Every structure is written in C-alpha cells, then in structure tokens.
C-alpha cells in the first residue's frame, strides 16, 4: 500500500480525495486496501463524509536517465543551483 501511495500525490477537493494511478493493476491493489484506509482516515479525522476516487491514467510516463548528460540535466531540472555549485567550485562533471 505504501508503494502505491508514493506513486502520486492525492488531490483533495472538499471531502473527496482523488488519486491517480498509472495502471489497472495498481488500481485493483489500491481498491483492495481502500476500505481500511478510509476507516482509518474517517476515524482519525472525525469526518465520515470522506470519499476516495481512483483514476487510472496510463499516459503517466516516468523519466529515466540513461547517460551522464541526461542525469546531469535531470538534476539541473530538479535543482538549478547545481549549475551554480559547479561553476563556483570549477567542477568538471564531464557533461
């Protein structure tokens, strides 16, 4: 269940939680555990109006870094300060 919950961030709209998953298998696994999750949320939040909607979006693509340049570009995309660090200390990253 934890690995499924880490796939994507849920979207909260009032008391409705929308969760997007990449395939039907993940959806089936999530739905098998959904009642326990709903019971936990409803009990701890003292709100019995909470609902969870699961959407399958098979167009979700994961980016994979294949070579050093791709990895560097991905890190630069995540944190632009990497370039500042590289230029400040004169690092040669072979990119």
Question: How does this model look, in words?
Answer:
This protein has four helices and three strands; from the N terminus they run αββαβαα. It is an alpha+beta fold and 95 residues long. It has a three-stranded mixed sheet, with helices on one face. Strand 2, helix 2 and strand 3 (51-56) form a beta-alpha-beta unit. The mean pLDDT is 87.
Secondary structure layout plus pairing:
Blueprint: H1 2-5, E1 11-13, E2 16-21, H2 24-45, E3 51-56, H3 68-78, H4 81-88
Parallel strand pairs: 2-3
Antiparallel strand pairs: 1-2
Observed structural traits:
single chain; 3 strands; 3-stranded mixed β-sheet; 95 residues; elongated; alpha+beta
Describe the strand arrangement of the main beta sheet, using strand numbers: 1-2-3
Total DSSP helices: 4
- Round the Cα radius of gyration to an integer and report it: 20 Å
User: How many angstroms separate the termini?
Assistant: 39 Å
What would the average pLDDT be, to the nearest integer? 87
Short description:
The protein is of the alpha+beta class and 95 residues long. It is 47% helix and 16% strand. The chain has helices spanning 2-5, 24-45, 68-78, 81-88, and strands spanning 11-13, 16-21, 51-56.
């Amino acid at each position: 269940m934890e690995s499924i919950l880490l796939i994507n961030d849920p979207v909260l709209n009032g008391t409705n939680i929308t969760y997007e998953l990449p395939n039907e298998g993940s959806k089936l696994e999530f739905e098998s555990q959904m009642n326990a999750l709903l019971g936990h949320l409803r009990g701890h939040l003292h709100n019995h109006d909470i609902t969870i909607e699961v959407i399958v979006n098979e167009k979700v693509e994961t980016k994979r870094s294949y070579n050093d340049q791709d990895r560097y570009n991905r890190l630069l995309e995540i944190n632009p300060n990497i370039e500042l660090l590289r230029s400040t200390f004169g690092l040669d990253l072979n990119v």
